[in-house]
Amino acid sequence: MSKAMRRNRKQVRPKSERKPAAVPKKRLPRYEKLTATKKGIYDRITSLITDLRSGKGAWPELLRKYRLTARTARKYGGRDVVGGGRGKPLRASKSDRRVRDLLFPTSSGDVPIRIRNSRDATKLSDYYNDREKLLHGKLSIAKFEAKWRGAQVAGEELVADVRTIFEMADADFLKMEHLYASVGPEK
C-alpha cells in the first residue's frame, strides 16, 4: 500500500478508544422565568458570591451559612464561581452580571428595578448608606450633593436633590426595610 492510499484511508478507532461526544452545558432559564423557590436559591447564591468576594468566610463555611450544596452553588453560580479544580482554590469572579431586583430612588419614592451587575448594586448600596447618613445628620448636605449629583446607576440618574429627599423622609416614603426589592407576589 502506498503512502497516498494510507493518507486518504480513514482510520476507524475501536469504540474503546473513541472520545465521548461533548455534552453542551445546560443553561439556566432567564431570571424572570424561574420559580419562586429557584429565585430564592439564585438570591442565596448571589449573597454567597458577594461574601466570598469580600472574604467573609471560606467556601464550606459560606455553603453552610446559606444552606447550599457545592453542586447547587456551582450550577446556579455558573461563571461567577471560579477555580476549585486541579489544586486551584475556589474563588468568586471579580465582577458579575447577576440579576438583582433592587429598590431604585426616584423623586416619588423607591421603586423596584432590575440591576444586572455587581458594580451597579454596590453603587446603589453606597447611595442608600449615604442617604441614611444624610437623614441622621452624619453627612453634610454639600458632601452628599457633591458625591451624588449627576450619578447614574443602570442608565438612570439618582435623586441627589437634598430638599426632595428631606420632603420624602417627612412624608414617610423612605422607610428602608432592606435594599433588595420584593417585586414578586406577596407571601
Please provide a written account of the structure.
The model has no long low-confidence stretch (mean pLDDT 82). A hairpin with a 2-residue loop joins β3 (100-106) and β4 (109-115). The chain folds into two domains: 32-92; 100-170, no CATH class. The protein has a two-stranded antiparallel sheet. It has a two-stranded antiparallel sheet with strand order 3-4. A two-stranded antiparallel ribbon has the order 5-6. The longest helix has 19 residues, at 36-54. It is built from seven helices and six strands. 40% of the residues lie in helices and 12% in strands. The chain is an alpha+beta fold.
Tally of domains:
2
Largest sheet: 2 strands, antiparallel
**Given the C-alpha coordinates, what overall shape results?**
elongated
As a percent range, the share of helical residues equals 40-55%
Number of alpha- plus pi-helical segments: 7
If strands are numbered along the chain, what order do they take across the biggest sheet? 1-2
Detail the poorly predicted runs.
none
> What's the gyration radius in Å?
25 Å
Derived from helix and strand composition plus strand pairing, the structural class reads alpha+beta
Q: What is the element string, with H for helices and E for strands? A: HHHHEEEEHHEEH
The first-to-last residue Cα distance is 77 Å
Strand proportion: 5-15%
**Whole-number average pLDDT?**
82
Number of strands: 6
Using brief descriptors, characterize the structure shown.
single chain, 187 residues, 2 domains, two-stranded antiparallel sheet
Short recap of the structure:
With 187 residues, the protein is of the alpha+beta class.
